[in-house]
Write a structure and sequence with these properties.
Elements (H helix, E strand, L loop, with lengths): L2 E5 L3 E3 L2 E9 L6 E10 L9 E8 L12 E6 L8 E4 L8 E9 L5 E5 L15 E8 L3 E11 L1
Antiparallel strand pairs: 1-6, 1-11, 2-11, 3-7, 3-10, 4-9, 4-11, 5-8, 5-10
């Protein structure tokens, strides 16, 4: 299986929920999520934690992205990744279904989760859906996020 890492460029997030990364799959194959992560560079130690969530969208309305996320193949036979990837959204899309979320400190916060083998979230193979990471901050912070994923 080809494995990739998709990451955003530094996102100067402002207050409110914003999509940081979105991986849109075609209807011809699915992906499974191996790892997700986020870090922030906030400077105020007393800032309340940010909400970091991951989920899916049916792409009814895609939202407005700023730039293109970087995808690098990190293992497996060389195969073009075949996704449409977006980053650092200034306008949110619609029809999001959040899978889970956590609180992450805005002051130099970091969060990484690896999914156990065989229990990775997987996109449907027959629909153009997306997997997304979303952050909700209360202070202006820079956000870096990544997703390690495999093409099935």
């Amino acid at each position: 299986m080809a494995v990739y890492c998709t990451r955003n460029t530094a996102f100067a997030a402002t207050a409110g929920a914003k999509t940081v990364l979105k991986l849109i799959t075609p209807s011809t194959f699915s992906i499974e999520i191996h790892e997700i992560g986020v870090s922030m560079d906030g400077v105020t130690a007393t800032a309340v934690p940010a909400t970091f969530e991951w989920g899916t969208s049916d792409e009814t309305t895609a939202g407005t992205q700023n730039g293109t996320a970087v995808t690098t193949q990190i293992s497996g036979s060389i195969v073009a990744h075949g996704l449409t990837v977006g980053q650092n959204f200034s306008a949110e899309g619609t029809t999001y279904t959040m899978i889970a979320g956590v609180y992450v400190p805005q002051y130099m916060g970091i969060f990484v989760i690896q999914n156990p083998l065989g229990l990775e979230p997987e996109s449907p193979a027959n629909a153009a859906d997306s997997f997304l990471l979303r952050i909700n901050v209360t202070a202006n912070v820079n956000v870096l996020a990544w997703v390690k994923w495999g093409r099935k």
